[in-house]
Amino acid sequence: MRLKAPTSPLWTEAVLRDFDAFLRDHANCERKASGSAMNMVSHYPDRTELVTAMIDLAREELEHFHGVYQHMASRGLALGPDLKDPYVRRLSQEYRKGSDAYFLDRLLAAGILEARGCERFGLVAEALPPGSLRDFYRDITRSEARHQGLFVRLALLYFDRPAVEARLDELLDAESRIVADLPPRAALH
Length: 189
Known about the structure:
mainly alpha, Ferritin, globular
C-alpha cells in the first residue's frame, strides 16, 4: 500500500519537541489497536481467518503497548487520558453504510492506519539518536508494515480484487486530504 501524501517534516519536529506527549499518545494508540482487533473478533465471529488474525494482532498490539509503557515508565511518565484522535475520527467518517461495504471499509481503513503508522514510526526511528528507543521504533516500524499487508490480505479473502483496489484508492485519497488538513502535533496521527 502506498500512501498518497507523505508526512510533513514539521510533524517530526513537533514529535521531537514534545516526545513525552508522543509517547503517551503512542501508548493510547497501541491499546486502542489491541481493542479494535478484539472488537473485530466480536463483530465477525463467523469469519475464521479474520478471528485468528485479529487474536494474533491484538496480542502483538498489547505487547507494543507494554513496550511503550516501559519506555514511559523509565522516563517517569504516567499514561495519559484517552483522547479522541481527530485523524481516526475523520477517517472513520468515510465508512459506508451496509454490512459488506462497512466491513470492507473497516478493513481497508485499518490497513491505512497501519501504513501511516509505519511511515511515521520510521521517521521517528530515524530522528532518534542510537539506543534502545531508536531500536524499539525500528521494530515497531517493521510490525506496522506487516499489519498493513494483513488488512489488505483479509479484504482480498472476503471481496474481489477490483472492489478492494477501487475502494482502497478512494480511501487513500480521503486519507491524504485528512493528513493535509490536520496540523502537525506530538501524536501519531
